[in-house]
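Exam revision sheet. Question 4 asks you to relate a sequence to its structure. Input first:
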Amino acid sequence: MHMKTTLQTRFPSPTKKSWLITVITIRLLTILVLFWLEDKDLSKGLIANLATDSREYYLATAANVAKNFSYSKHVGRPYAGHMPGYDFILAPLLWLLPQKVALNTLCILQWTFGCISVYLLARISYTLFNNFQIFILTLVGYSLNTYVAYYDFFVLTESLAISCLITGIFFYLRGGNYNLIISGAFFTWAFFLRPYLLPILVFFALGLFYKYRKENKLRLLLNLIFFMLAFILAESAWVIRNYIHFKKIVPLIVEEQIFGKGRMSALRDFIASIGGDKTFWNPNAEIMVFYDSRINKLVPARYQNPEDLPKYMFTSYYNADSLRKLREWYYLADTTSSVELQNYADSVVIATIERYKTSFIKEKPFYYYIVAPLRILMKFLVHSGTYNLNSVPFEQLSVYKKILKIAYSALYYFTWLFGIIACSIVLFHLPLQHHFHSVLVALTGIYPIVLFPIIYRSAEYRYFALSYPFLFMVAVWLLSIILTKLKTLHKYLI
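Answer key, structure tokens:
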């Protein structure tokens, strides 16, 4: 039973839906700030942002579903480079509405679902920590963030995936057959939006094992069936569909359909292997030495020539001149009109990169296995946290925009620094018996930070958005503990 604090007696109960109105109001203000900082151009009547992935993947497949009822990028060519979780909502909109209206409607739906998920995240914090102050701080603080809110207006899967995860956890914590079915459905939708979220689903399934470990096996089995029902049905349909088209078992995706097996895939793998950033639209990424896909180049690339790379990235087998020649072959494959020459240049690039990568692993195993992933982890976390708010260099911004960007940078650093410390406390210091739900949430927050920079060796900033809400919530919990300790110390000193 929750004990009412002095603060709580002045405000409605966390279960009151009036808190959702508060969230909507704050997030409307956040939109205005976001659009103002971004200098968003609304003259074309489009609030949706389209990234490269938006056009090449999600919009292409959803348009084919809407027009031809075929999940493919090109008619007649089966596709499994992404899972169809986004098409579930985008395709019906494209079928019913003109494209611009459909995309704007999609963003409004993402933003609305985001508002609900903010409120549900605050409810989760109250359930886990039984503290009204944490509920308030989570609700207001997360409503103000732009790191996640930014993706509400992008035709990408981040916004919906985050909202689905939060909603799934909310219903999971409520328990009961009906809630577990709903929870499993949202976890499944999150998985079909972002396949790498499958381990999160597994974590929570194992949580049911732990929760009902001392009860009869029938109840445990039924709870697992209720929770996994949506996943079993959806995943079975996906596997059967892929087997029909590809004549093999494809439970997730066909990775070759994203970057293929050509020079781009080889180059990204090489850059990641030596501890560089393979995000080819980030001006601070090492891959810029070879490939710069940016249209807006107001910010100069940090790494423009092979000599700019850290010295440890070279071996006795290759040096800066070697990489310059490799870059020439890469450019040739990109620019030549001859198919034969392109194929030849492509094969040279792939073979050369493979030799360079092998030499790096052989000569510098410590750098490959330890330094490189840690370096990528630092690149993943240590940045302004406002990279997506404005493409104009910081020194050229107005005073007010500088102040806001600094404030949001502070919020970003608070989230991941306090969040990671708080997750460590939850995972290694709190007794599992009484806090296993908190452990599951902590794992959800930490998982993307381990998966992308350490395992996948990717420093793409948008993947941190999946950690943000859960790290922020536990960061607020840790802040509340610190403030309570300081208050107690202050009284003791007085």
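Marking note for examiners. The radius of gyration is 24 Å.
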